Structure prediction request, 479 residues.
Amino acid sequence: MNNYDIIVVGAGPSAAFLAYEVVQLDKSKKVLLIEQGKRVEDRNCPIEKLGKCTKCKPMCHITCGFSGAGAFSDGKLSLYNEEDDDIYVGGVLHEYIGVEETKRLIDYTDEIYLKFGADTKLEGVDYKKEVKKIYDKAKKEDINLVNIPIRHLGTEKSHELYARIEKYLIENGVEILFETTVSDLVIEENRVKGVKVRASKYAEDDNYNNDKIINGDKVVLAVGRKGANWLVKMCDNHNIQTKSGTVDIGIRYELPDKVMKDVNKYMYEGKFISRPYPFRDKVRTFCQNPSGFVSTEVYDNNITLVNGHSYKEKKSTNTNLAILVSHNFNYPFNRPIEYGRNVAKNLNALGNGNIVVQRLGDIYRGKRTWEEELKNNSVEPTLKSAVAGDITFALGYRTMTNILKFISALDKVVEGFAHPDNLLYGPEIKFYSNKLAINNEFETSIKGLYSIGDGGGLTRGLMMASASGVQTARNICKK
Ligand SMILES: Cc1cc2nc3c(=O)[nH]c(=O)nc-3n(C[C@H](O)[C@H](O)[C@H](O)COP(=O)(O)OP(=O)(O)OC[C@H]3O[C@@H](n4cnc5c(N)ncnc54)[C@H](O)[C@@H]3O)c2cc1C
Prediction:
C-alpha cells in the first residue's frame, strides 16, 4: 500500500496537533492519521439519552475517534505560571526539552487553541491573595497546592473546537483513516517500516488474518490511555525499550458545590498534592469539575472506569474531582497496567459491570451503601448508572488508607470535604502504559518510531499532549 512520510497511530489531540504543525512547516509531506474510532461529528455517547453505559462496539465513543479522549473531556487546558521554574501539571515534556522551551511550546499551542475558538478567559489568575490563604492552610496539613492558569473549553465546546481542527486538517491534505485499527507494527532490523491495519470491527478478532500493510519510515505512536494495553503488547513483541512505569489508582469524589465554593471560585481547579503516612505515596486531586457531572468510559476488554466533566452551560449543583494514588512496582512484579486492570476488573464485577458508588460515612461505618440510602442522601449522585455498593472490597488497603487520610487532611483546609454524605465512585484509574524509553526527540529505541501524548507516559493532559505533537512535527520536519 501507499508510502507516507509520517504515519500517526491515533487521532487524539497529540496526533491532531502534530498534523497541524506539519501543515504549517511543510505541506509537501504526506501525513496519515489512523484512528480506530469515528469522525468527531459522528461520536455520540448514548449515556446521555439512556442513562446508562451500553459499552458501544467496536469502540467507546468517549475514548475513541477524532480528538481521542479530548472530545468529551471537560477541556481544561493547563498552562503554567510565569514565575515557576518547573512545570507541575500535565506530564514530563520538560524533562526532555527543558522548562523554558516547554513554556514557549505551551504558549504556541495555546495560540492554536485560541485560533480554533477557545475561550479567551483564563481561570485561576485573579484572587492571588485568597489563593495564598488556602495555600497556607494546606501547607499546615502537609499538603501542597498547585495553582496554575486554566483555559476552560467546556465539554460541548471541546467537541466543536476539535471538529474545526478535523476539518482544517482534511482541507489541508492530511489523510485520516477512520474506524481503522493498527493491529501491529512492521519493524525490520530495528527500524520501523510501516504498520498493519484492519477495520475496527475486527480489532479484537484473534483469528483475523487479512491485515493490510501501510508503508512509512516515520511512525508516531499517539495512542493515548486507550492504547496503553496495546502498547505493552507492541513493546513485548518488538522489543521496544520501556522504563518502569506508574499507575494512578483511586476514586472520583463528588460533593456539593457549596463546600468547594472558594476553590471553585478562586482557582476553578485546585491541585492538592500530599504524601500521607505511613506509605508516603503521592496522593493528588485531579480533574476538578465545578457544577459538573460524573461520567464513565470503557476501555479494552470492557473495563469501565469513572471520570468527570463539566459543561459551559448545563450545570449540576455538585463538584467532582479525582483522588488518585500513584503506585510504582519493581521486583519481582513490574506490570503496573496489569495491577490496575485487576483492581478495575474486581470493582467492575462488584458493580455488575457498572461503576460502584459509596458514601464516605458508610466506609467509616464499615458497611456498604444501599440504593435506598442514596435516595435520601444529601449529595445526589450525578452518575445515574452507578450502582451502590462497597468499593473497599476491591481497592487495596494501601490505596484506601491513602485516600481516607488525604480526605481527612483536606477537610481541615476545605471545611466539609470529609462530610459523611460525600460520594466515592470507583474505579478511577490512569493507565500511562509502561513508560516508553525515548530520546529528546521522542524517538523510541526503534529507529523512526516515535511516542507522544498520554499513551507512552510522556503527558497526562490535553495541553501537554497537544504540545508534544507540535514538537514532534518540528523534530521530524527538520530532518
Ligand atoms: C472524560 C475525560 C475528561 C478529561 N478532562 C480533561 C481535562 O479537563 N483537561 C485535560 O488536560 N485532560 C483531560 N482529559 C485527558 C485528556 O483527554 C488526555 O490527556 C488527552 O486526550 C491525551 O491525548 P492523546 O492524543 O495522548 O491521546 P487520546 O486523546 O487518548 O487519543 C488516542 C487516540 O488513539 C486511538 N487509538 C489507540 N490505539 C489505536 C490503534 N491501535 N489503532 C488506531 N487508533 C488507536 C484512540 O481511539 C484515540 O482516539 C480527560 C479525559 C477524559 C476521558
About this structure: The first helix runs from residue 13 to 25. The radius of gyration is 22 Å. The CA atoms of residues 343 and 394 lie 6 Å apart. Residues 128-150+246-431 form one domain.
